[in-house]
Design a protein that fits this description.
alpha+beta, 6-stranded mixed beta sheet, 3-stranded antiparallel beta sheet, 4 helices, 21% helix, binds zinc ion
Length: 194
Amino acid sequence: MKQLLRFMSSVVLIAMISLGVMPMAKANEPGAHVHGMATLEIAIDGAAVQINLGSPLDNLLGFERAPRNEKERQSVKAMALRLYQADTLFIFTPAAQCRLESTRLESAVLAPSLLAPAPDSGKSGDTAKADTSDVHAELAATWHFQCAVPQALQGVEVHLFQKFSSLKRIDAAVVGPKGQSSAKLSPKSTRLKW
Ligand SMILES: [Zn+2]
């Protein structure tokens, strides 16, 4: 029964997102691209937590185009690795026992193979997509967590600033059991409560 409920709540969450009921982030919203700033949207529905990050690539990588050499390729992979380790980026109320289920990373200027979780060996395709200079680009990350004790979930500690030092401010929005709220996070203010 509990399994069924958990399944049902996931279905409802997915349905709500795809129907556009929930204000999920669009990473490339016009005018939203400011270096040092990022947006975070957290949707809690029962045991399921979805987090969307939209950030200029500059905050995470230091450049906003396809990598041009091996050093830059390694930088992209190091960034992706940090983002895949989302249990070190988002520290939920421990008693809620939230577990990372999936991670998705997307950027218009980075080949999917560079953002893949498994290390790739070949170089083919890594320079795919437009290598346009002087154009801004973003990264969108989506994480799904599942919490074993969702009623214990009261908030999250956001550790993105420690991992990405160019990041200075995050505009965060939460849709949770108590409705919607928003907060501005900074290296000195990293806690979201709901
Ligand atoms: Zn930029």
